[in-house]
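Notebook, p. 212. Picked up where the previous page left off. The plan for this session was modest: take the two constructs that came back from the sequencing core last week, fold each one, and keep the raw output in the notebook itself so nobody has to go hunting through shared drives later. Recording the first one now, exactly as returned: residue sequence, then the structure token string.
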Amino acid sequence: MKNAPPKATLLEDYRPLPFKINTIHLTFELDDKETLVTAVSQIERERSAPGEPLKLNGERLKLVSLEIDGRALDESDYSYDERFLMIHETPESFELTIKTEINPSANTTLEGLYKSGTIFCTQNEPEGFRRITYFLDRPDIMSVYTTTIIADKNLYPILLSNGNKVESGDLEDGRHWVKWNDPFPKPSYLYALVAGDLGEIRDTFRTISGRDIDLHIFCDKGNESKCEFAMNALKKSMKWDEEVYGLEYDLDIFMIVAVDAFNFGAMENKGLNIFNTSCVLADKSTATDDNFYRVEGVVAHEYFHNWTGNRVTCRDWFQLTLKEGLTVFRDQEFSADMNSRAVKRIEDVESLRAAQFAEDAGPTAHPIKPKSYIEINNFYTATIYDKGAEVIRMIHTMLGKENFRKGIDKYFELYDGQAVTTEDFIHAMEQASGVDLKPFTKWYHQSGTPELDVSYQYDSAKQSLKVDLIQKNPSTADEQEKHPLVFPLACGILSSEGSSITPNVEGARKNGDTVILPVSKESQTFVFENVSSRPTLSVNRGFSAPIKVHVRYEHKDLMFLMAHDHDEFNRWDASQELGIRLMLESLQDQSMKVSEDYLEAYGKVLKNKMLDPGLKALCLTLPTEGTLGQRQSIIDFDGNHHVRETYLSRIATHYQNDFIDLYEELSSNVNYQIDPESIGKRSLRKLCLKYIAQTEKKEALDLCLESFKTASNMTDQYGALRILADYDCEQRKEALEQFYQQWKGEQLVMCKWLTAQASSKAKGALDKTEELTKDVIYDQKIPNLVRALFGGFMQNHVQFHDSKGAGYAFIVEQISELDKINPHVSARLATGFRKFGQLDSNRRDMLRKELDVLLSKPDISPHLYEIVSKCVK
């Protein structure tokens, strides 16, 4: 018998609570297994709710005592169960004192207060605070927090919480205490506590008004030097936010703490950000360029939340994109300003298409403002974050930079210190700009990826170009009926020689040689005037809208755009589209031939000395197997792998000498620097090495091993390791063993070692992944290690989706075991099953059998149940 589905929470059911909590004073007496928490809250009943009982959230708590205004309550005055504490009658205004006992060491869910190694820390977003004490654990309950932490001074010399440190002292029994106060009202999800014996680096930042802010980053002792990059990223973020948005930091101190066991990348708790170590620790020996990028971006993201998320927060969790979409947009723009804007945009869109487009097309599709959820943790998705950021970007494009900034200013003017909705954000933008955005707001409520058919016809007599657009919004798993959406479509036109033509288009706004077409209907026509010669149309420049564009390009048109488009994003996009079309055509006719024209076009990019090296590396990277699969109603995993390998090998053989020459030229740059040009050159060098190794000749694999052994930084060393890991050769075995012996004491580096083997295209990846679960470095309680190993294997399309079903059985078994420890991690892994509907009947039957068994387990978490049940629906 299948389990009854857990009850869903609905947006339409939102109601304000009958009470507000003005202040709360928390006292923690820390102990591994018996931490005592005393919560003293000042509570007022709302006038609109006379006589209603006080219903507090609480999970896995031991209630010790309960008082109102100093009077101990009788058992008849209240009732409680596994989820709630109900106090039947209360005064209009009163002081509530609750004492609870919790066991941090047993808290493997990593929600609430838990132990990470020797460190006490918290994670309360979205609903972790209810595991600390009974409380109105909702984002619209904003309170002023004061925290007193008491702990053994020898074991936990550093005691941290939100806000500013106000008092401290020693106790006679070897313990000490510290009191913190945060003067800004905040919801419980932003509460944080950390206690441990930690290493630390310090710095200061002078704000635009002349205030000096103390900056601290805490980590395990011995890792202090790896925090310097994060500290510099923090200071750059603070400066950027002042310069671009006029937003100054508001407390006297800003702290970051890095912990190993953390479900997310990081958390923006007010003044005390708690980070996964993978988003803080970075030096050239242990971190790749991608790791440095991620540290910089995540530090910026969490800092930017101080205003877009903390000072103005969400009324309820259906509004999650209010803070996350806006803040992702802000961190993307920061990273673009700090690095290569073109490369950043391409990488962001690659990620969106791989994760979010797949989400929109799969069983877990939902709008950026969902209508319901069973487990809110499951809605921390690419849709909420990345598509949400694209929606903000479209508003920025439609309003223009100046009006968008005015809108942000108005947003804080109207709502600072409040918990608000997406409608409130749109209202602020409309008020500041005078633009009616209501037709645009369908993006918040409609799931799915719009598709746009584009055709164009040139009239030489009238010197005009007629562009016809047909918008389609396919049905999704969560809703059938769709409506046309409003979006800005950035377009340019190129002459036959490749020069830009700047046309006039009625109703469109110009931005240099690009025009912004206001798309709003199912069918529209725009006429480009003053077009003196037959042009080639460049559509959706800069990915101005998160849509799928279908243009009637011939292959020669795409080659032309690859060579000449002035928009760097579209130049890359043309290279990807051409590669996808040709590979799928080769697969369909089973010829597996590589077009000579394509080889020629590829060579022009390879030999282009003027192209930015980072952009060149992206343009020369073939579409992934996952990208090919997105174009297929039934995914041909084996065929996609075979055709891609065929193209890689053909290109590698044809341009082997060119790859070797370019590799050697780039190898002369030995100084390791973190800047766009240096990062781009290392990326291009790694791509050359990959193509050299694709021949599988001994001298090519020896070159990879030499590159691995002589590398002076992790980017080069791990790049060579990942290449060798794909081939069953002696060089592979030597590199993997050397890497293990060199880095087995560095957990984050060992994550790379696990992924290299689990994602290997060499045969036997499943057996190796299973073997690695028994390695001493693997710990299923550490999410980073779990994601590295199983996430890596699930991205190994051919071997995870092996036709015999062994990959499915293995992963489902692992997810079932993980669900008992950490439902957040098990549910995240289960999103890898969202391709269920695109499997052939044989694979679908095998996977359904495994997932039905999983769903029937009596102890399956709501987190996992929601994801899996949607996948097989």
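Okay, moving on. Second construct, recorded in the same format:
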Amino acid sequence: MRTPALTLALVLTIAVGIGSNVSIYGFARGLTRFDSPLISAGRVVSIFERDARGEAGALSYDEYARLKNNLDVFEWMGAARISPVSIAMAGQSAIVPAAAITPALARGLNLPAGNGVFISHRLWQNEFGGEADVRREQIRINGAAARVNGIAPDWLEGLYRERPVDLWMLLPEETLQGADRRSRNFWILARLHRDVSVGRAQSAVRTNRGAADAMIVLPYSGMTPETAEGISRIGKLFGFAAGLVFFIACANVVSFLLGRAFARSHETSVRVALGARRGQLARELLWDSVVISVAGGLFGMLLAIWTARIVPALLFDQDAERLVFAPGLVSIATASIACAGITIVCGLMPVFAVSDHRPGSVLRRESAGPSKVMRGVRVGLVVAQMTSCCALVISTAFLFDGLRAALQTSAGRRLGDPILATAQAQPQPGTGIKYFQEVQQAVHSMAGISGMAWTGQLPGSQPTWQSFRIEPHLPLRDVAMDIDWFTADSFKLFSLPPKDGRLFGFQDQRCRAAIVNEEAAAELFGRNTVGRVVQDPVGLPVEIIGVIAAKGSRPTIYYNYADQTGPVPSRVSGANFRAPIGQDLASAELDSNVVSQSYFETMGFSLITGEEFTGYRTPGECRIGVLNQEAADLYFGGKPVGAAVIDDQGIRTTIVGVVDAKPLGAFQRHAEPAIYFPMLQDCPLRMTLIAGTRKVNEPMLADLRRRIESVPGQGPAPVIIQTLATHLAHSALAPLRIATIIVGASATTALLLSILGLLGALSDAAQQRRRELAIRVALGAQRWRIIQQVLIEGGRLACAGTLIGMLGSLALARLLGRIAPGHSSPALWVWLAAPLLLAIAVIIASVLPARRALIVSPLTIIRDDS
């Protein structure tokens, strides 16, 4: 009560120390928190396989089948195959990521087994408003009819955070027998037996394996190893920031209480000399410290709750959803006990500092001021505070500069400030491409718009992986087959549905396609026949789209007889075809995207070989695609033009070109292997227009929205308009942005605490030297020199702390560089930010002591001391 300013400073310091520690550690735990019954069940592990670049990913079916033999290690094992699919439901259509899961994994996810599908809670909310009862509704998946069994739980966003899933369907084990055995598209989860450790499971999966270090077993956390590693680095940075702020708070408490102990040592010594018992004084001081600690702890908990609500409000909605506040009891107890212990020990120092009971000795000791050791301790504490504050300020500046540099993309350098306009066409056949072309024409007339291109995948988004079989250039062999024609009467000869693939459709009128019977498939490519190409007797390519069971045993190929009115051509026996040798094909995982003709030029992708897309479809042209250089080198030895890829549905795509697709920005380590399909060939209902602008402003965005919404044919989804920088800030760069905000908040807190600590140290120093200052004023010293002396004293402490902090920050550069990738050489202002801010802190902290020095009255000081 006698020293309200000091008491308030102590309570606030303890509150900030505990509150910041609890909140930062709570945010760090929230980043790794993934609510899932699989995690709470325990003993669930993920099994990954490292690829040629050392990145962990999915396994092949062969690996999955081999692992299932280790049932002595695993209680159960399940797999999920994730790929994009086209769905149509309730008059709406979209391309969404779907997961086909085995029954064991379905039981682990608490999804009832059945022939229907489950849609994600996110899809239900976004597409159906969270109100429509979609159970037992019909849904078409890649053209096949299915029934919706229900809605997946809201926690089931996907097996892994970075691989969301909107559709869950059952994948019976028996259907896997005919699957591509080498495609790495199976994500494996398993549960260990009760007495089996992760290390033992790791040894078991490596048994009888050539590359002994290629497969890894990790406890299931809802994150892939790469994501877990990135989150771990951010968590370490959060822990470092929380530790420094907590240290500054504790140093402030020690510094304040040491000054308080010296101020009360006169009173304590006199009371002891007059007969007071030390135990009685210790109890009074103990209760004093306990009251301060409890008050500071309560305010600290309140501050942590406020921080948990304020910090997410500074983020985008998507970032705020990731930034879960999950405080841990260990961090709360550790911070509270540490602050309480420091407060109690330092609060009892006046009792321990009394060495004798003679008042004369006490007065003589106090006239000399604090000992050199005591002064050195306080100076060291202030310097350590300045060092910690400097390190946090530099870390914040480093991350902020890294975020700013990461937003400088290759597309931005070409297009200025790119705008992304996402629109959806009405779900009617043939209207999509016309709608998007009319939207582009409407936007093209706007002033300030430069390059434009359509893309099905937003730049900087997570890859949309799709599994393919690779058909390179292969030598040809002769195969004899009969030639027949598929007519309306042919259905009597066939057992439908087809054994594999599909029958003729509208799209096959543009490409020379055929169907073969099972005998011909056995002669050609076995179970990998659908999607392959053979040369007919005149040397023209023919794509096989289906395999049927037909009466008769001769190998036969069936052409589509489109003209049902004229006479049917005669059957040809023993025609000579040529087919590539070999039946098995290698597998590949490619990031698939649908783009317009101008996409490569707009994004700055240069053509390496072959040709790009044209603005029209060539009659008789089959499906085509363009690869990037990474896919061409990884799967085709750099020579893919003329080769082909075949997806899981047996749909073939011929590669016509290769482009150099450089990473979009510094946040991407490398471009992923990718394939691009022309928009005229595969036009989804939802596309994004990339438009370059010199300068973005609100009137331009409003005019752009108005023009797009005025085009007829818009679907039910609203138009979404944003800049590329905004999109990247809350998608690909969301973790970096979160880290910048959290560390920035820590640096601000540390700066305020450092100002408070420096203020206390300079105030105590001025109080202890008031007699000297009074005499100097009485002898004619100019008051500005006294102010200068106070500022110089604070500046020395700040300079020492800044120098040590900058040297220590060099050791942090590696960790910060990995959090802000591609930013190894920060700008000069990053290193100047800390000295400038600390200089401002010194000026602020010196105002009150300097003011006190100015109003020193020699007569008052002499009268008080007498």
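Notes on construct two before I forget. The longest helix spans residues 225-273.
Flagging for discussion at group meeting.
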